[in-house]
Amino acid sequence: MDFDFSDDQKFLKSEARKFLGAHCPVSAVRAVLDRSEKAYDQDLWKKVTEQGWLGAAIAEEHGGLGLGSVELCVIAEELGRSLAPIPFSSTVYFVAEAIKLAGSEQQKAEWLPRIARGETIGCFATVERPGVMNDAGVQARVEGGNLTGVKLPVTDGDIADIAIVLAKSGGQSGLYLVNLSDSTVGRQTLQTLDPTRSSAKLTFSGTPAELLGEIGEGLSLAEAVMNRAAVFLAFEQVGGADRALEMAKDYALNRYAFGRPIGSYQAIKHKLADIYIKNELARSNAYYGAWALDDGAAELPLAAAAARVSACDAFWFAAKENLQTHGGMGFTWDVDCHLFYRRAQQLGLVAGGAKAWKERLVTQLERRNAA
Amino acid sequence: MDFDFSDDQKFLKSEARKFLGAHCPVSAVRAVLDRSEKAYDQDLWKKVTEQGWLGAAIAEEHGGLGLGSVELCVIAEELGRSLAPIPFSSTVYFVAEAIKLAGSEQQKAEWLPRIARGETIGCFATVERPGVMNDAGVQARVEGGNLTGVKLPVTDGDIADIAIVLAKSGGQSGLYLVNLSDSTVGRQTLQTLDPTRSSAKLTFSGTPAELLGEIGEGLSLAEAVMNRAAVFLAFEQVGGADRALEMAKDYALNRYAFGRPIGSYQAIKHKLADIYIKNELARSNAYYGAWALDDGAAELPLAAAAARVSACDAFWFAAKENLQTHGGMGFTWDVDCHLFYRRAQQLGLVAGGAKAWKERLVTQLERRNAA
Amino acid sequence: MDFNDTAEEAAYRSQVRSWLTANAPRKSGRVDSGLEDPASMEEAKAWQRKKAEAGYACVTWPKEWGGGGGASWQSVIFGQEEARHETPGNPFQIGLGMCVPTVMTVGNDADKERFVRPAVRGDEIWCQLFSEPSGGSDVAAARTRAVRDGDDWVINGQKVWTSGAHYSDFGLLLARTDPDVPKHKGMTMFWINMKDAAVEVRPIHQMSGASNFNEVYFTDLRIKDSQRVGGVGEGWRVSLVTLMNERLAIGGGAGGGHRTIFKLAQEISTLAGPAAKDAGLREKIADWFVQAEGLKYTRYRTLTALSRGQVPGPESSIGKVVSAALMQDMANTALELEDQFGIISDPDLAPLAASFQTALLAAPGMRIAGGTDEILRNIIAERVLGLPQDVRLDKDVAFKDIPTGR
Amino acid sequence: MDFNDTAEEAAYRSQVRSWLTANAPRKSGRVDSGLEDPASMEEAKAWQRKKAEAGYACVTWPKEWGGGGGASWQSVIFGQEEARHETPGNPFQIGLGMCVPTVMTVGNDADKERFVRPAVRGDEIWCQLFSEPSGGSDVAAARTRAVRDGDDWVINGQKVWTSGAHYSDFGLLLARTDPDVPKHKGMTMFWINMKDAAVEVRPIHQMSGASNFNEVYFTDLRIKDSQRVGGVGEGWRVSLVTLMNERLAIGGGAGGGHRTIFKLAQEISTLAGPAAKDAGLREKIADWFVQAEGLKYTRYRTLTALSRGQVPGPESSIGKVVSAALMQDMANTALELEDQFGIISDPDLAPLAASFQTALLAAPGMRIAGGTDEILRNIIAERVLGLPQDVRLDKDVAFKDIPTGR
After folding, report:
1. In contact, C41 and C92? CB cutoff 8 Å
2. Residue B13, domain CATH
3. Cβ-contact A125, A202 below 8 angstroms
4. Which of A212, B310, C131, C136 has a CA-to-CA distance to B32 between 20 and 30 Å?
């Protein structure tokens, strides 16, 4: 048994941290936050591409590095720490994973190399209205190979080249690959809680759409993709939560009140201990998810749900209590706490909220208990 | 507007506190705890009878003092503080209230004076199995005026003279008044979490039973009785929670660790502040319940549910965190913390658990919002 | 225990109602949410003047100072009735609730004569200049220096978290006059003219996008010694008078949130069915309801005490602790229900005009401004429960020698 | 990241499995739950002896002292495999986990020779005598006095919360030898014979009904100076050796609770329907599950570190904080589900043999024994996160002058 990263993975992690420390300082995140015309950090995207990270978990035959899912998790954790303002999750965790999972050989050969080379940004478009993704919520229709409907919110929908869209044809759900450069596609950038990750409303009016996987499997494929994305996102969340804890700790050590550092007061010490506890539990659950994903284990749906529930809880708690630890400065625009507070919500909602994942988790548990 | 006790009520409260301080010290509660043959404190019961408290809210024509519900709430709070080990709640909040609510003039005239005089101990027997009280859970049957079935747990069932029993006749539920001295009644004392309040399993084998109220109204009457009892119990819970907070505070002021009173550490200070907050919220909700009860207001079901939910939360939290504040001593038999911990469960379950009351509360809210 | 009025109360209430019906304007905007908004400020001032002329502005204050000369219970009733109308924003709260009462208690006769009446009439607005960047929760850590120069004082330094500084005419300023004595002993209180050129007000940009607070900088601000409020070195004691008055300002509550989330739940599905039938959400709604109702009835108890002429104690600190956490929790839960859609904060697209997204961004400030959760729990523990202060390393040393970590 | 064994690990595991299948007894009772139970104690000792003879008792300890002379990973594997069998209670944990390692690290050669082997073989049981009534969480507040008398020490005082004192042969005792120096400097460590007539053991009656702990009284207990473990005045430093070893004892978890409450939920109705379908309960189950699983995988990470020969740090303190609160919360929720019936604690009547009622009464002890929630959070904050200690008033004064409130 070996429940830790390997030496190679640890090396990758430390290199990734160095790289992002150099190329993704908080000022880069703020640049995207403060400039509404800047949807993402194109320089960073280019550099990340050069690192080969986009293709870390794509096979060599498709132009990737051919590493495992665990290596992608390692990268995800560091991207989460640095709040990287790039369309990595949409493109890699959702779209590349969907194509790897359900794409034909031809679709893989067409799209995975482009993704690995950083030429194609992807987005994943499933929902149309408030509430969980479910059959009744899918109004988008494909007829004669053409898609009509509206999807929102679509993370990175305003900058993506392709979308994977959940739609129905003949009453059956399917995932569809759509080229967004088509003139029938309308895009409207959305105002969201986390402007460092862009989001859009996409309108399709008879847009050519190509089936990914089988018709009738759209919802279950979307869920399978979300299970995979949930594990990677959990690492981003753990990375963000760890960084929030470090911020809180640094502030608590250096801020004095009543003649002593606030970090010497139990109210702050125990708050930070509680953040640490949640972060460690989330990390351990994420590790298990990484193993299940990499191993192709049957436990993936349960492990992914556990990783996500734990990570959503940890990052939200760390982000809000880091802010609280900073007192008045914490809720100003100029101090970075709110970047983590916003990102905690973005990551906590992008693959669906924790409440729905708890229900998925318990459903899996019931199946396991019954087996 | 006047949202406080009147001067007369405050005088009653301070007299009640003095009386119970003299006649119900913790040693009296421990005597019932430690001696399994002692189901309640008979001396205290006699003295409480002499105070007239059993008939506080019973009309003068029925031998009571003819005071209002608010006065009974005042007494309840003090009984809760002192953990009085007597069948007061069963006899007064449940049985006397049930008879006042649904009894015929004859039934009132027969039983209320006996209750007021302390001659008759009552108990309220509704459930037979784990889970909420509902129609499917009522297996007890009345045929030809005779009751057959089993009820457990019945608080004070081992010492009561009469029971009000929820049973069915011809498929319809009703409340029945049963004289427990009948030879067809079997009683078995139960082992419970709070031995300072006795509880029994009652077995009826063709026991004569007299209808209270209308047939078909059994469940709704039982709920109406529980609404009334919930308000009185909330005051007992607030009284207990306040006493638990005082214990914690006294200990925190006098116990030293690392050279200073533990009450100077924020972990303890903030814990106690949180207890205080919950207690004050519970008190305010209980006050509103008392007003609704006394005023006969239509809001009673909502106000009672709010009072109960808030009081259950407060007493449980105060009891467990008082114990925690005491450290190692807290979980020994000889220190009194566990008496409050036990009573918090007893009061929290005797009229049904908080979970069910939350559902009742929200159902009432929906009705109000719809109106 | 009675929600009904006595005959005397009913008579007063009816008189107030008629007056309000005849005189209350419709609110057209909120002064305290924006930076500069002359129109709504004028509206607010006009309403205050009208109330002052009718004796409803400061109901319990003496008539000779522009108040209503009434009883506490009348003030409570007027407050209840006014809350039933849409009235303009209230930029006078800090002045009339904290600063001017301090002048009335501690100030000299000339100051009382000069300031009370215009403040009651709404002609002049005050702000409170206590908090500083290095101090945070520790008001007594003020470093803004006031140095004596003949009959003047020269002031340099910075205040922060000052509500309404940009529209205030006067400010109550706590400054350090002697750094060589322990911190609580070397401060003095002054009033200053906020329009002086040596005073610079800069809005603080909050994470929510709003700017409810300011930084205020003083560069060689020269004031007269007659602007001193209380004795030299008495600043801390004077500030306690101000802060004690703060308690009396009974804020509104977080009630009604359960109604909003119910509305949301009726439009939304969970994996198991309609959200309004979801037992998990229903339990939370019950929990929030008993907290909000508990606060509401706790305020009624405080109002009862006030109307009996009693002074409410620090127990009213529980309001903000409970309601701020409740607001944050409810907003987060609502966003979880909205699921992926929850990230959208555009009021034209998000359910209920994005009210939960707005609440999520405002909640952190609620948990901090006006005393953090942690400070308020200290206050409850120490002043209500009588637990000892934490160990203080800053009490018996000269202010300049207190560790600051810099 | 791999749950599978390497070839070497697999070989060792298979060898262990065969041995266990051939040798592991069926557990017939639990020694540590009762007071005196000679039969199950004999069974425990027999099992320990058998393991010692096969090199499985203290897998990583040198063979010359009765250990297995193996690697950390072998110890981990043996532990995992042993846990799959029903083995007797383990009264040796404190001795082999804490006391004897202290003797091995700090003690003299004669003591090592005398004590290690019999302890490994289960012939002699040890207890740890650190905590005192006035000390609680503060081990360095020990008041039990050891006074030098020629070549002897005479001991008077009282210890408390001593697990297994009633069946122990020897105890590791922390005593105050100099009350005139600061608290951490005036203590000395000794080993004592628990069967000495001057030692009186009294069981502590817990609220749960059990007596897992004892009070231990010393009345003129006379011991030799050769029973000193470490130098005079070195007691605190020696105790840190003992307590550091405590961390290595990796406890079991609170896993599986969700299964039990699921079972309960299948038998019970809420007002809205079957409890197993109640979204509120399901959310709680998910929360508990991720906590229990998180702890389980955190232990795996610790085991991985151990099996790589690393020493796990204070981060393992999170286990008890999480699982004790989880146990209390789950028990309370289960009782709420049982509703009125929940008060019944008779295992013959209450659902699932009253396991939730039992847990409710045991949980408070879990949150306190072995370090309260509060102390463990201090440890995490200080030793893991590096936050400063709280202000200490007891460090630089003579022990006898430290405030105690008496």
Report:
1. no
2. 1.10.540.10
3. yes
4. B310
Is D314:D384 a contact under the CB 8 Å cutoff?
A: yes
**Catalytic site residue D338?**
no
Nearest to C290 among B6, B281, B291 (CB): B281
> Chain D: nearest CA to C391, how far in angstroms?
7
**Secondary structure in 3-state letters for chain A:** CECCCCHHHHHHHHHHHHHHHHHCCHHHHHHHHHCCCCCCCHHHHHHHHHCCHHHCCCCHHHCCCCCCHHHHHHHHHHHHHCCCCCCHHHHHHHHHHHHHHHCCHHHHHHHHHHHHCCCCCEEEECCCCCCCCCHHHCCCEEECCEEEEEEEEEECCCCCCEEEEEEEECCEEEEEEEECCCCCEEEEECCECCCCCCEEEEEEEEEEEEEECCCCCHHHHHHHHHHHHHHHHHHHHHHHHHHHHHHHHHHHHHCEECCEEHHHCHHHHHHHHHHHHHHHHHHHHHHHHHHHHHHCCCCHHHHHHHHHHHHHHHHHHHHHHHHHHCHHHHHECCCCHHHHHHHHHHHHHHCCCHHHHHHHHHHHHHHHHHC
pLDDT of residue D252 exceeding 60: no
pLDDT tens digit string along C282-300? 999 999 999 999 999 998 8
Question: Domain D127-235 class?
Answer: mainly beta
Closest-CA distance, B69 to chain C, in angstroms, reads 11
Instruction: Tell me whether residues B356 and D402 touch, CB distance under 8 A.
Output: no
Tell me the fold of C252-384.
Answer: Butyryl-CoA Dehydrogenase, subunit A; domain 3 (1.20.140)
Instruction: Choose, out of B331, B340, B343, the residue to mutate when testing the contact with D (most D CBs < 10 Å).
Output: B331
A276 inside 8 A of chain B by CB: no
- The rounded distance, in Å, linking the Cα atoms of A187 and A205 is 12
CB contact under 8 A, A2 and D304: yes
Would A1 be classed as within a structural domain?
A: no
| Whether A126 and A139 share a structural domain | yes
Residue C233 Rama label (left phi>0; alpha psi -120 to 50; beta): left
Cα C236 from Cα C242, distance rounded (Å) = 10
Q: Are B361 and B288 in contact (CB under 8 A)?
A: no
List the chains bordering chain A where 3 or more Cβ pairs fall under 8 Å: B, C, D
Number of domains in chain A: 3
Per-residue pLDDT of chain B (371 residues; tens, 9 = 90+): 788 999 999 999 999 999 999 999 999 999 999 998 899 999 999 999 999 999 999 999 999 999 999 999 999 999 999 999 999 999 999 999 999 999 999 999 999 999 999 999 999 999 999 999 999 999 999 999 999 999 999 999 999 999 999 999 999 999 999 999 999 999 999 999 999 999 999 999 999 999 999 999 999 999 999 999 999 999 999 999 999 999 999 999 999 999 999 999 999 999 999 999 999 999 999 999 999 999 888 999 999 999 999 999 999 999 999 999 999 999 999 999 999 999 999 999 999 999 999 999 999 999 988 87
- In chain D, what residues touch B250 (CB-CB under 8 Å)? none
Gyration radius of chain D over CA positions: 23
* Chain B residues inside the 8 Å CB shell of D344: 152-153, 190-192, 199
**Cβ contact (<8 Å) for A126 and C343?**
no
> Which of A155, A103, A91 lies closest to A126, judged by CA?
A155
Predicted local confidence at residue C40, as pLDDT: 83
Total Cβ atoms within 10 A of residue D392: 12
Instruction: Identify the domain containing residue A274 by its residue range.
Output: 219-370
Kindly compute the dihedral angle of the four CA atoms of residues A291, A297, A298, A303, in this order, to the nearest 10 degrees.
0
CB crowding A237-248: b at 16 or more within 10 Å, else e: bbbbbbbbbebb
